[in-house]
Amino acid sequence: MLFSKKLLSKAAILLAAGILSLNYSSAACADGGVLTERQAVTADALASRCSAEAAVLYEANTESFILECESEKSVSMGHFAKLMTVYLTAEKINSGELTLEDTIKASQKANSQTGTVIWLDAGEEIPVSELLKSVIIGNANDGCVALAEGICGDEKSYVEAANSAAVSLDLKATHFEDITGMNKNSVTCAKDIAKLCGKLLEYDFLQEYFVTWIDEVRGGKTQLVNTNRLIKSYNGIRGMKACASDVNGNCLAAAANRNGMDMIAVIIQSETMDTRFSEGRDFLDYGFNSFELYKPEISKEITKSVQVKNGEYSDVGVAAGKIPLMLIPKGSSSNVSQSFERKEYLTAPVKKGEKVGLVRYVNADGVLFETDLYAKNDVDKMSWGIALKRLLLNLLKLG
After folding, report:
1. For the domain 300-398, what is the CATH code?
2. Distances (CA, A) of 334 to 66, 196, 258, 364, 376
């Protein structure tokens, strides 16, 4: 790998941060050093010692932003652009339009790339699997161009596809003007990078590439070394990308899984190559040490049948809307309470999906989540025939 030797000066940033979907407070980044592994990690400590220009901690399963520091600030994309190339390639493979074994012919444009490269020759045919390796492990500009052209045809078509994907993934600050991200008008933000990394975690076949330390391509002609040192040392690491360049400094996107949580730390323009890893590690540690996933169970009392007046059936079953996983402070599940409202009865006709109530989950900070209760089936209005049959049955019971 080739890296820029340019180091950015310390950033002094003071900004309030917190979980977007929950009401937990934290502070923001400010000028200072980093925590050691032996120190107790708190949100305020992380904030006060973070040297990054922008940073974020994100839990992908619940789409929760836990810590934010200038998370929506527009920054040059740099090598992070390659994550989109990987995503678009994964989509093609997932849909069956492309396989890892397919080969792509490198163009003259791919051959002309500078910076970090695997020295592709114009006209050289190389498997998709090796191009993915070159992009994920090696940040190779020529491999990235070859792969992008291979899946989209040319740079213009790729840029259109990348920008379309950014919209569909709700990456609001992300815009592409080129393939490799070196164009100054190719921009993104820490929050968008975290979201994109979260999507990449859904493609299991990419996992091997993201956690590979050393590999080779082109029949052994080119060796790849992953610059994300956390893949060798962090428990539960799932990879992502470490990079450095003149356009966006020292950066890291690191994902790890523990106890069902997928924590993603994004560090942009950290003070040095080393601090991006220590800060990323501390962000991840904070997430795993401070939070847990929680999914409440719906009680039978909430979903018991509701009486139906003047219906062909006397009652109807009740179901709740989808209850998602929730991210809560570790050890606080006992403080989550459940409350609900239900109609005492319904009058026929009743339509499947008709709202019959509401269930909500709250803790000390307020409402965590709420969802509707609804009728599980249609219940038509009672006909004369059904009414007569019920009357006869009741008379027989009395007899």
Report:
1. 2.60.410.10
2. 21, 33, 21, 11, 30
